[in-house]
Amino acid sequence: MNDKAMFSLTYGLFALTAKMDGVDNGCIINTAMQVTDTPKRISITVNKSNHTHDMIMATGIFNISIFSEKATFDTFKRFGFQSGRDVKKFDGYNPWKYSANGLAYLTEGTNAYISARVEKTVDLGTHTMFIATIEDMDVLSNDPSATYAYYHAHIKPKPQETKPSGKTGYRCKVCGYVYEGDELPEDFICPWCKHGASDFEKVEL
Q: Which of 1-10, 79-88, 170-179 has the lowest mean pLDDT?
């Protein structure tokens, strides 16, 4: 089975934001989609290990900012490669505003945002699917949306060539994190992007 076939699905990338106890937080997802147009509903699927997941479970509201092809890798690193349990992701980051629901949305490298309220949750084991009603949304630019394939081809840096050290490791095909060791545990979860062992490839370090 070729796992790379999943990269051919036409889905985008989004900054999912929430707020709890006065703290803004966000993470990167690629699982937002329209469910119905009338009434206007969307669904998102979020890894349970993300702090943003727990904030949405507690508050029932969220925003998604839709990334455009002008998004930079620095934004993905800020919101995707560190945990909101450890850092305040919005500290020192200026291109954002509050929407009517009091949550942040990104204004740079995005072309629209959507504010939604959770109607229903579906437990998917490692993830939760949130089905939500849209309460507000707006278009921010006419720049094309960044697809997952575009991110891999044009935004994510290519691995740098280095002289082999004789050591073995495993590189995450999604974000580039490298695990050093001869064997990758089957239950290993990438500490940066939260993808599982199936998204790692063996490399010489």
A: 1-10
DSSP structure string for 68-132? BTT--HHHHHHHHSS-TTTS-TTTT--SEEE-TTS-EEE-SSEEEEEEEEEEEEEE-SSEEEEEE
**Res 2 pLDDT > 80:** no
What's the confidence (pLDDT) of residue 162? 56
How many CA atoms lie less than 13 Å away from 178 in the CB half-sphere? 11
pLDDT band at residue 165 under the 50/70/90 scheme: low
Q: Quote the percentage of the chain above a pLDDT of 70.
A: 95
For residues 203, 146, 14, 119, the Cα torsion angle rounded to the nearest 10 degrees is -120
Residue 49: closest CA among 190, 202, 200, 198 = 190
Cβ contacts of residue 193 below 8 Å, gap of 6+? 28, 80, 81, 172, 174, 175, 177
Rounded-to-integer distance, Cα 6 and Cα 4, Å: 5
Cα(101)–Cα(63) distance, rounded to whole angstroms?
9
CB 118 within 8 Å of CB 101: no
First to last CA, the chain: 26
Tokens 């490399």 appear where? 203
